[in-house]
Design goal:
259 residues; Rossmann fold; 8-stranded mixed sheet; 26% helix; binds S-adenosylmethionine
Length: 259
C-alpha cells in the first residue's frame, strides 16, 4: 500500500502517529542550485520529527554531498557513513579540480532490535558503486534533477526493513524510494511539496505496483492484496481524523482500491 501527499512535509510528518515508521529516507535539498527548491539547504528539522515516528529498531538514512556533510551530521546520531560512487558521471572538459562523483549515505538507528538483513558480497562494504540513471543532469527533460537510482534505494530498504514494514520519504521528488519500497513489498508514505514533481512520483509508483521487479521474490503480490499492518491501519485512521478536523488536508493522496 502507498499514500502520497502533495504539500509541505513538516506539518504532514507532525500529523503521523509516533512509532509508526520502520525507515525514513531523508533526501533533503542540498543547496546546489539545481532547481528553485535547491537554492539553499533545507529540511534539517525533519530529522527530529522522523526520529519520533520510528519504531524501536528503525532506521534513518540520509544522502548528501561533502559540502553539507557537517550540517547533516549535526542533526543525526550517525552509526555509519557509506560512500556512494557514481562511475558513470560524465567528466567535464574544463574542470580545474577533482571531478565530483561521490555522495554520502548516512545511517542512524533508533533502539533495538535493529533490522539488518546483511547484503551479499561487495554490497556489504561501506563503498557502493551505483550508476546514476538517465534523467540526471538533464535539466530540459521532465525528469527530476536530483533523482536517485532505484538500486540505491533497494539496497537501503532491503537491508534495513522487512516485508510489510513502512517506509517514509518526506522529500520524495520523483518517488524513487516509493518505487523501490512497493517493488520490495514494503508499504510507503511519501510527501512532495512541488506540484510539478508530484505527478511524476505518483505515476512512477503506480507503475511500479503493476510491474513486479526482477529483484523481488517470485511470490511477490500486489500490495493491494496484503491486509494492512497495524501500523498502516493506525496511519490511515489518523489521516481520516485529520481531514475531519479540517486541520490539514491530504491532497493527492493515493489509496489502493480493492481489486
Ligand atoms: C533532493 S530532492 C529528492 C529527490 C528524490 N529522492 C528522487 O529520487 O527523485 C528533494 C525534494 O524535496 C522537495 N521538497 C523541498 N522542501 C520540501 C518540503 N518542505 N516538503 C516536501 N517536499 C519538499 C523538493 O521539491 C525536491 O523535489
Amino acid at each position: 500500500m502507498f499514500t502520497l501527499h502533495n504539500g509541505d512535509c513538516i506539518p504532514f510528518m507532525r500529523s503521523l502517529p509516533p512509532k509508526s515508521i520502520h525507515l525514513a529516507f531523508l533526501d533533503i535539498p542540498y543547496g546546489l542550485g539545481v532547481a528553485d527548491w535547491d537554492k539553499s539547504i533545507s529540511g534539517l528539522e525533519a530529522f527530529e520529527i522522523a526520529r519520533s515516528l520510528l519504531v524501536d529498531g528503525g532506521s534513518i538514512y540520509a544522502t548528501c554531498t561533502f559540502h553539507i556533510l557537517d550540517q547533516v551530521r549535526a542533526v543525526m546520531n550517525v552509526r555509519r557513513i557509506i560512500s556512494w560512487c557514481k562511475p558513470n558521471l560524465p567528466l567535464r572538459k574544463n574542470m580545474q579540480d577533482w571531478e565530483w562523483s561521490t555522495e554520502f549515505v548516512l545511517w542512524e538507528t533508533i533502539g533495538e532490535p535493529r533490522v539488518f538483513n546483511k547484503p551479499q558480497g561487495e554490497a556489504s562494504r561501506y563503498y557502493w558503486r551505483i550508476h546514476v540513471e538517465n534523467g540526471f543532469l538533464n535539466k530540459d527533460g521532465n525528469d527530476h534533477p536530483a533523482r536517485k537510482p532505484v538500486q540505491l534505494l533497494k539496497r537501503i530498504i532491503s537491508t534495513s526493513t522487512n516485508e510489510g514494514d513502512v517506509v517514509l520519504d518526506p522529500f520524495m521528488g520523483s518517488g524513487t524510494a516509493g518505487v523501490a519500497a512497493v517493488q520490495l513489498d514494503r508499504d510507503f508514505i511519501g510527501c512532495e511539496i512541488s506540484a510539478k514533481h508530484f505527478p511524476e512520483a505518483e505515476s512512477r509508483i503506480k507503475s511500479a505496483v503493476l510491474s513486479p521487479s526482477f529483484f523481488t521474490p517470485a511470490n511477490n503480490r500486489l500490495p493491494l492484496d496484503v491486509p494492512g499492518s497495524p501500523a498502516q491501519q493506525a496511519l490511515f485512521a489518523a489521516e481520516a481524523e485529520v481531514a475531519e478536523d479540517g486541520v490539514s488536508e491530504i491532497t493527492g493522496g493515493v489509496k489502493p482500491q480493492n481489486v
